[in-house]
Amino acid sequence: MDRISTAAFRTEIDFALPMGFIDEAGVRHQRGVMRLATAADEILPLRDPRVQANPAYLTVIVLARVIVRLGSLPAIDTQAVEGLFAADFEYLRRLYEEVNSADVPDVLMAAHTANGALAGGPSVLGEA
Question: Number of C-alpha atoms within 13 angstroms, CB side, residue 111?
Answer without folding.
Answer: 4
